[in-house]
Amino acid sequence: MALSGQRIVVIGGSSGMGLATARAAAAAGAAVTIASSDEGRLKAALAQLPDTCEGAVADTRDEADVAALFDHVGELDHVVYTAGDTVRPQPLADLPLDAARELFEVRFWGAVATVKHAARRVRPGGSIVLTSGTVAVRPAPGTALAAGAAAATEGLTRGLAAELAPVRVNAVRPGAVRTPLWDPVPEPQRAALFATLADRTLTKSIGGADEIAAAHLYLMENRFVTGTVLTVDGGAVLAGS
Fold first, then answer.
1. Name one Pfam family in it (predicted).
2. What is the pTM of this model?
3. Which of 2, 8, 59, 117 stands the most exposed, by the fewest C-beta atoms within 10 Å?
4. Which sequence positions are flagged as catalytic?
């Protein structure tokens, strides 16, 4: 397997897409470090992973935390950035500017800090994989800030692919995916929302975290792909075009 024996760091690896990616990479023979700002979730995630995995508490809003993480890891082969937080739709007019800035802290600036401190440690043939979202190209009312953060991540991906070459930099653009980020939504509303979102796709389904993990692994393994934003959305963007 292409990832066997490689060192992979998954930021946001304690749940959802990040945990699924860590699990898939470990199954492919990689040594995986997962990082999360939540120590409790980190311990719970490690209990689900093989002994070849380790964890580190790191808050991507704190550059010193990010720097310390990569000082600890040392040389590595791939970094996957999946850290994010729950974003509730809200009109811009009702959103305090401080809250708007905070939305970018984890989703965009955390990715910037991660690449800044990881890039020089990536071994030849290695890569960095970021995560955006279909909201970048198909926003709904109340999601302007989330769309801005996702679009900024995609621009960052292309710019870094040119700047950091031959280190490869790509991004996955997920559509609607079942992850713990949806947990704050009460179950009846969540089920109705998933049904609506599934109906808007060509596959008439909601994605699973394992399907996003497969996209992350593809981008790590394929050495001829860089500067690419890979859409994994069941055809939702196409269905809405």
1. adh_short_C2
2. 0.94
3. 2
4. 132
